[in-house]
Amino acid sequence: MSNVLYPGHSQLKLNGRYSFDHSAKRHHVGNVACKNRQARALQDLPNNVAVAAVHDSERRDPPRCHPETRLTVQGQILDWAQCDEETTPQRRILWLSGPAGGGKTVIMDTVACKLKKRGTLAASFFFSSYSSFKACRIKDHFVTTLVYQLIRHESVGRIKCLKRKVLSLIQEEPSILEKSLKEQMEVLVLRPIRDCQVHLKCQPHHNCRLHSRCHSDSDCECHFDCRSHSACRAQSNSSQAPQVILVAGLDECGAISHHSVNDPNSFAAQSSRQQDHLEILSVLLCSVKDAACPFRITIANRQEPGINRFFSSHERSSVHISLDDRYNPDADIALFLTAKFSQIRLRSPARATILQTFPLIRGPVSLQDSL
């Protein structure tokens, strides 16, 4: 008989009285409580996320590389990102360095867009001393911002196990959101990946028995960490799995404002910033060295002594791209200027009288030298 007061619960009529099946009711309440706890965890995490630091945030209006410019360096980064593990097993960090205004952030934004289209962008964080949002200038929400992007990735249906583990850990230990970056990376990223043997770039081979525990879980829709199995790698489809994390503007982390980045009088602030840089670099390096970590990480920053020393002492763990004259920036600048002046000519009321060759650039640097 249907229960009007408690729909879905069975009831029996004995001697004119109703008896309810309370076990079903308890089960229902338990599910509601569980969902409420997950909802609270999902709410706590965004409160500790630097939304404006994500590459496609509406709060950022980043420039992109002009078409046909910076193609060489973009190609090197993209080729490295999809490189087979057997080719560069130890070099899972790419360091992009260059002078201020050299185009590092623009390149990283453009690469992020291309990786996202491929489905291989796992997460990103763009530090900015110019940002009006404090969270973009400090390290506090660095790991939690990466975590939030991971569990909300478009392939989350395939890595539901990861999302469930992360939210469960936040429920059990809410204080993790206030702990060190190293602890957050271990608890919110590496531990969940180990627990459900998630691998974001490789599906399990049908003969792989390493993950029998996960295979026995009918609710587990995760990918498994079978990076070491050649048969699994052969069947993987890296273009459909997130595997690259981008970190741009690391040198701007810790800056109160963009004026303080090069303030020689703030020695204490500079020392604190350098410590923040080294902490982030150490956390990322330890992560990629962990067998459970499926990610490759690209880091971009202007060259600073502390960061330079760090990478010099870990040369075998990273690939270095320096934006110098080898990438022929003059040719890219000439191409950019020619395109922009062409736009000016086309928009001018006197465009019919302006020569098609306006302005005439005889060499890649002639116009720059004349300014």
Detailed description of the structure:
The longest helix is centred in the first third of the chain and has 23 residues. The radius of gyration is 26 Å and the shape is globular. The chain is an alpha/beta fold and 371 residues long. The protein folds into three domains: 44 residues; 280 residues, no CATH class; 40 residues, no CATH class. It has twelve helices and seven strands. The N terminus is likely disordered. The strands form two sheets. It has a five-stranded parallel β-sheet with strand order 4-5-6-3-7. The protein has a two-stranded antiparallel sheet with strand order 1-2. α2 crosses α3, α4 packs parallel to α6 and α5 packs across α6. Helices cover 41% and strands 10% of the residues.
Largest sheet: spatial strand order? 4-5-6-3-7
Q: How many distinct domains?
A: 3
**Number of strand segments:** 7
Which geometry do the CA atoms define? globular
Q: How do the helices and strands follow one another from N- to C-terminus?
A: EEHHEHEHHHHHEHEHEHH
Structural class: alpha/beta
What low-confidence regions span 5 or more consecutive residues with pLDDT below 50? 1-33, 198-240
Q: What's the main sheet like?
A: 5 strands, parallel
Overall mean pLDDT stands at 73
Radius of gyration: 26 Å
Residues in helices, as a percent range: 40-55%
Strand content range: 5-15%
The count of helical stretches stands at 12
Our measurement of the CA-to-CA distance between the termini, rounded to an integer number of angstroms, reads: 89 Å
